[in-house]
Amino acid sequence: MVFFKFGHSARRAVVSLAAAAMLVAPLAACGGSSSSNSAPADIPAEGTDDGTSITMWTRAPLERQAQAVVKAYNESHKNQVKLEIIPNDDMEGRVGGASQTDSLPDVLAGDVVRIPYWASEGIFTDITKQIDSLDNLKDLQQGHIDAGTIDGAKHTLPFITDVSVMVWNKNLYKEAGLDPEKGPTSVDEFLSQAKAVAGLNKDGVAGSYLAGQSGGALVFTLFPSVWADGEQVMNEDGTAASLDNDSMKTVLDAYHELANTPNGLGAGSKEETGATWTAPFANGKVGVMQYPNTSLNDVFDAEKSGGFEAGVTPIPGTKDGKTSTFLGGDAMGISKDSKHVAQAWNFLHWLMQDKTQAEVFAKNGYTASNIQTLKTAYKDADPRIQTINSTIIDGSGQTPKSAAFNEAFNAAGSPWQILIQNAVWGANDSLAADNKAVTEVLAQ
Count of CB atoms within 10 A of residue 275's CB? Predict the structure, then answer.
């Protein structure tokens, strides 16, 4: 990125211009309307199942789980959901363009951190009455509901829950003289264990890995350690960053040390855009790192076929004993353009039921969005899946909410992404200034 070649003041100017440009483009795409259509008053409590074809979009990273959901619905209903998988990087453009031409699908699922902006722009239908009528509403993943709540009006429900956990390669731990059954319980232990694996000096093997050019992967993996310490990354209304805290500095210092340790961070970490950030661990080339639980199913499957054994533990803070997780994944809602709101609600209502959550998610080893299902339907599951579920059940996880989250954190060239580049691969002395740059975007 050319940003890193400039001096500090020149870089700041370029960042501000880039951030401003990123903010304008999505507003133009969506039309800037904050109003939303309300669902018809006469929709049955469970919606309508009359053989209607329902269109749906979701992101490619969660394709495996989305396909399972749609297959189960289509096999048990007259309605049929036609699922289209959108490449992650194309989602914003597709939604913006379709919104302008009133051609959004009936059901739209998207990254939960982007949902607040879409909801504020009137992308979804107001289904407050339908959501509030759910018998098990209190058991559902509230972060995915809150993300689509604007001025008290509810627009979204949880679709796929994706949480961040710490994983390690037990085979590499054994080789490095570490206890293969004990993952890190603090940031310091993470650092020391990663350095131990790095010290093996094995060709292509690294202590850890970081998606240095993927703002989305970076928030997903690094924020939990800050939350575990009781710190916050933003203020409550998402208009100011608070990344210049002691916990974040400790996390960044650990990665800075790994970046300056031979084999500390996997090759390509600095340039990783997120497209392949889970592959190095899945290929047995990384000792320990934070990881999305939705990608662990493939790791577990490979293990059964002779692959390495992976350990799983909650993401620790800078002190022993405290953990947290990023409650991510996709939330879903009925778009403003749907002509089949009652039928689309039938799909959403079905997916929220305890029985559905148990049969579609628990039986397949996926993470349910229903707390009671997490507590009761995984008794025979792999203990590592139970560990993943515990990160949600214990209530310490968070879902950050800001209408400008994408521009401040996820977008290419975001000030958060630059903060990481400076802290990990740069001089590691500009955290306060880089935090201010994130705030400038959030405040807009």
Answer: 15
Read off φ and ψ for residue 88, nearest 5 degrees: -50, -45
Tokens representing 208? 């850890």
Q: Are 227 and 398 in contact (CB under 8 A)?
A: yes
Q: What is the largest CA-CA distance in the chain?
A: 66
3-state helix, strand, coil in the chain (%, to 5): 45, 15, 35
Residue that is written with structure tokens 């710190």 in the block: 231
Q: Are 34 and 120 in contact (CB under 8 A)?
A: yes
| pLDDT tens-digit series, residues 140-177 | 999 999 999 999 999 999 999 999 999 999 999 999 99
Q: Is 234 left (phi over 0), alpha (psi -120 to 50) or beta?
A: beta
Q: Which residue has the tokens 């939960």?
A: 112
- Residue 69 token pair: 């959901």
Cβ atoms within 10 A of the Cβ of 387, count? Answer: 17
pLDDT tens-digit map of 403-439: 999 999 999 999 999 999 999 999 999 999 999 999 9
